[in-house]
Design goal:
Length: about 280
C-alpha cells in the first residue's frame, strides 16, 4: 500500500492480515477494484487480459446490463423510469402565508423565486432513516416531500478544541426562523392537498401512511416536521463568497482566499454569495 502526504512524498507499507482484508472504494471504484482483481463479467476481463477468478460479481451489475440492453434495443424497461417521476418548484398560493412573511420572501429572494420544491418519490420516506425497512410492510409506497428553497434560518460551524482529530461543532439551526416554520407548515398542507386531489386518489390505496390523518393542527404538523426532516443530499454554503468589506466573507468573487488579521483563510465551500 502506498500512502502519500502533502509535501512529504510517498511511503510504501506492507500490511499483513491474520483473517481477512476488506477493501472498499466507493460506488464507482469498488466495481473497478473487483474487476481488475479478476472478479467480474468474463467478456470484460478477457478484453483486458485479466485472469478470471469469479463472475459476475454483483446482482445489480447483471440487472443493469440486462436493463441497459433492453433500453438500447426497445426503449422499454426499468431504465425508462428514473424513480422520482415528478418534481416542481412553486411559490405557495396567495393567502397561504402571512403578508409579512410573503413580503420578506419576495424582498430577500426576489418575486420570481420559488418558496418550495415538491418531490414525488417512489419510497416510504417516513422519518428519512430507512426507505425500505422503515416502512410498515413491503408494499409499494409513494411520498410527496417538500424542500424549503428560500430559507431564512442560518446555522454555524465552530470548534471546541484545537485538535483537528476532534469533530467540529455544527449547529444546523433548521427551522430556527419563525418564517421558515410557517413556510414548512404551509408546504406540508400543500403536499397533503396534492395527495388528496381527485386526480391522484385513484392511484392510492388506503389512508395516509405517514404521519397519518390524525396529524392536523399546526403544532402537530410542526412537531412531525421537526422530528423527520433532513437535508437533500449534502450540506453546502459553509464559507461565504463576498466583497472585501463583508466581514462574513471567506473568499472573493474569484474564489481566492481573503486575508484577515491573524493569517490567511483557505476555504473551499464558496456559496452563499453576495448578490453584488
Amino acid at each position: 500500500m502506498e500512502s502519500g502526504g502533502l509535501g512529504s512524498g510517498s511511503v510504501t507499507y506492507t500490511i499483513n492480515a491474520t483473517k481477512e482484508v476488506i477493501l472498499s472504494s466507493g460506488a464507482f471504484r469498488s466495481p473497478q477494484l473487483l474487476m481488475v482483481s479478476g472478479i467480474g463479467p468474463a467478456s470484460t476481463l478477457k478484453e483486458n487480459n485479466i485472469d478470471i477468478l469469479a463472475g459476475p460479481y454483483l446482482l445489480w451489475t447483471i440487472i443493469s446490463a440486462g436493463a441497459t440492453q433492453e433500453f438500447r434495443t426497445t426503449r422499454k424497461g426499468t431504465l425508462t423510469n428514473v424513480g422520482g417521476d415528478l418534481l416542481a418548484f412553486e411559490k405557495l398560493p396567495n393567502g397561504t402565508l402571512k403578508s409579512q412573511t410573503r413580503s420578506d420572501l419576495d424582498a430577500t429572494f426576489g418575486p420570481d423565486w420559488p418558496d418550495v420544491e415538491i418531490l414525488s418519490l417512489d419510497a416510504y420516506t417516513g422519518r428519512l432513516d430507512d426507505f425500505l425497512l422503515g416502512a410498515p410492510d413491503l408494499q409499494n409506497y409513494t411520498a410527496i416531500c417538500i424542500a424549503i428553497v428560500a430559507p431564512f434560518s442560518r446555522g454555524n460551524i465552530t470548534i471546541n478544541l484545537s485538535d483537528t482529530n476532534n469533530h467540529p461543532v455544527v449547529n444546523r439551526n433548521w427551522l430556527g426562523d419563525a418564517r421558515d416554520r410557517e413556510v414548512a407548515i404551509a408546504a406540508f398542507k400543500r403536499a397533503r392537498a396534492v395527495s388528496q386531489a381527485k386526480e391522484v386518489q385513484p392511484m392510492l390505496i388506503g389512508s395516509e401512511a405517514f404521519p397519518g390523518d390524525q396529524v392536523k393542527t399546526d403544532e402537530q404538523i410542526l412537531q412531525v416536521i421537526s422530528s423527520s426532516s433532513s437535508t437533500i443530499h449534502h450540506a453546502a454554503g459553509a464559507n461565504r463568497m463576498g466583497r472585501a468589506d463583508n466581514p462574513m466573507a471567506v473568499v472573493d468573487s474569484r474564489g481566492m482566499s481573503k486575508l484577515c488579521e491573524r493569517g490567511l483563510y483557505r476555504e473551499l465551500g464558496y456559496p452563499p454569495q453576495d448578490p453584488d
